[in-house]
Design goal:
Blueprint (H helix, E strand, L loop, with lengths): L17 H7 L8 E3 L5 E8 L7 E6 L13 H8 L8
Antiparallel strand pairs: 1-2, 2-3
Bound molecules: zinc ion (ZN).
The site of zinc ion has 7 residues, from loops.
């Protein structure tokens, strides 16, 4: 039962379709869709230049699967997991 160790705990994400699962758990590339330490599914929307550092990724919570359109999480879930809201848009 434990013959395949998952490097990343993708939780319930990736159940909607194989494309999303592959995108999250890609082993031959650096996934741009990842599950954060807080258990929130994030997608990278761009690169940001940081002075004296390597470019950083700009992540944004992903609410719908880009491949099959399934809802993967709600803003409420993201907020509860991330435990903060610094956007302030109502
Ligand atoms: Zn999907």
């Amino acid at each position: 039962m434990a013959d395949e160790a998952a490097p990343i705990d993708i939780g319930n994400f990736g159940k909607c379709c194989g494309e999303l699962k592959d995108a999250i758990s890609g082993e031959e590339f650096e996934p741009l869709i990842t599950v954060g330490e807080d258990g929130v599914l994030y997608m990278s929307v761009g690169l940001i230049d940081l002075e004296d550092e390597e470019p950083g990724m700009v992540d944004h919570p992903m609410f719908f699967c880009p491949f099959c359109g399934s809802k993967v999480q709600t803003p409420e879930e993201v907020q509860a997991k991330a435990g903060h809201d610094d956007e302030g848009d109502a």
